[in-house]
Structure formats: C-alpha cells, structure tokens
Design brief:
mainly alpha, Helicase, Ruva Protein, domain 3, two-stranded parallel sheet, elongated
C-alpha cells in the first residue's frame, strides 16, 4: 500500500470502448486487484463490456435524472460559481438536457460563458430556443388557419 493513503480509486470512463487487448489486461488486474485499489468502470453501453469483466464487478445502474434533480444540481453549480440564474432559465436548460446531468452541465457552461447572470433571454439566445419555438407557433397557426378557413 502506498504511503499516507488508504486506498487509490481508478475510474475508467467509457470502458466499453477498450480494445480486446485492454480488456484482457484489465481482466488480470480485476482477478488479482491490489489491496489498496478500487476500480470504477463507467459505461453508457454495458452490453459491449465482456462478461468476463462484468462478472467480476458490482453493477450499479442509474436512472435518468428528473427535471427537478437537474434544476437542483444546476442551482448548486451556479451558486458555487458565483452566478445568478433565473429559475426559469435553469428549467429551460434542464429540459434541453433531456435527463442527462452531463449534457445539462455542458449546456449550462455554454450559456454561462462570459456572464455572471443567466436569464431566460440569454438561454433563448444562446440555444436558439425562441427561434425554434416561434417557428413551431407559426407552423401550428398556419395549420389552424387552413383548417378553420381564417
């Protein structure tokens, strides 16, 4: 065990992308892990991870994030960064994130870049949501006009 540490954590993100050779090397390590090491394997595609690997692991599956969970997380992020954000703006970002913390954090970073305040208007401008929304409204209004003859 290394000095002054109780344990080393190793995170392998997107483990399903490893080559066959890399999986074979990892298998040997998982069969005889060092006593001070914890391996955390992350994947968005578990069926691509060989059974020889998964059989030596404890599996945790995560549910998609709710809109409320995303907004709560984004609130923590903006407070930590010293950014003021309108609740409606964070909700718009959460809706765009489609239940993904990672995608939401990326969108939040994009929207917040160079600003200490996030408003709904800024979110609309940066994500072109108003343009899309107004185009949909125009389309629906056109359909209604054709159907009703107005």
């Amino acid at each position: 065990m290394p000095l002054n540490t109780r344990r080393n954590d190793y995170i392998i993100d997107e483990v399903h992308m490893l080559t066959t050779e890399a999986f074979n090397a990892l298998l040997k390590t998982l069969e005889e892990p060092p006593s001070h090491a914890i391996f955390i394997l992350c994947t968005t595609d578990p069926q691509k991870v060989p059974a020889t690997i998964t059989s030596r692991c404890f599996t945790l599956s995560f549910e998609k994030a709710s809109l409320e969970d995303l907004v709560h997380s984004f609130n923590r992020i903006v407070k930590g960064e010293g950014i003021v954000a309108d609740p409606q703006a964070l909700e718009a970002i959460a809706r765009r994130a489609d239940s993904s913390f990672r995608d939401g954090a990326k969108i939040l970073e994009e929207v917040a870049s160079g600003s200490k305040k996030i408003t709904t208007k800024i979110v609309e401008e940066k994500l072109n949501t108003q343009i899309v929304s107004s185009n949909i409204d125009s389309f629906l209004n056109s359909l209604l006009e054709q159907k009703t003859g107005f």
